[in-house]
Amino acid sequence: MTTTAAAAPAEPRRVQRLLRLQALQIVLILLVIVAIFGTLAPVSFLSGFNIRSIVINTSILAVLGVGMTFVIITGGIDLSVGSVLVFSGVVASKVMVAAGGEGWGVALLGAVVACLSGLMWGLVNGVLIAKAKVPPLIVTLGSFGAALGFAQIITGGIDLRAAPEVLVDTVGFGNVVGQVPTLSVIAGLVVVLGMVLLHRTRFGLHTYAIGSNIEAGRRTGIKVDLQTIKVYAFAGLLAGFAGILNLAFFQSTTIGGQSNTNLNVIAGVVIGGTSLFGGLGTIFGTVIGLFIPTTLQSGFVIIGVQPFWQQVVVGVVLVAAVWLDQKRRTNAQSGRPRQSVLARLGRGSSKGN
Prior knowledge:
The chain is mainly alpha-helical and about 350 residues long. It contains 15 helices and no strands. The chain has a single domain, classed as Orthogonal Bundle (ABC transporter involved in vitamin B12 uptake, BtuC), CATH 1.10.3470.
């Protein structure tokens, strides 16, 4: 009995060490990229202005990445976040124009409308996946086209540029302390919220469980369909919130500027150690992973390489990350981490009883 009791907590510690090792590897990769571009263009790339730009450009992706991490941990995928971002920004802009005024009341109304718009698309995705049993790839691919199509119908394909000055000046271009962008602080708060939700709540535990073994999770009492709907709704909500942040920063709905958003977010999440096979992932890894495509884009522009190469490199790194994840799972016999998640659920149920 003593041996069994001692072995039980040892297994989660081994999983934690593995995740920390992955995070360390991702940080090292990012540092290598920074070192290469810093050597090739030390003055331009390592300037305060460029570093600030990288942080800001990563901020909106980080908000999307938090929701995408939850989705991919369940073993799903969401290809619609870029289009939902655009749609939410369009609807928010229209509502704010109709409301009139430049104050915080109108800006908050726009933020609420953007979040509700994203939440609606997330609920649609979740219900179709959980209840209609349509594969996530197909559902979110359909949402990707539908959300973008509705945005173009509403605007006639022309970007809207109406946003209250207080939203643009305070959120889009404002600073909190010194040169710390308000936009990045807001994104940081979303990231912290995501970390707490994923690693410290029953919602996060259930997310890991259904990604590890959906049938075993169902047998432990998890309402799998409801949990799936909640996860996609959460991702949609954050995509809507990213829409209002995008509008505040670019002062435009950027209808034609989000074509690579889905790839960059998914790549960042997977590069950050979240497994496309489900059951493993961290928000910290996602944030570091998202800095990689943004840093590559900035570096390529500065040294004069066509930014299109960024997508080539990100695509290659994404495939390599999935291959390494599959190889790591095979070598490490990933059934043990999955069992530890379900064991935690079992202990929680026992305490509840």
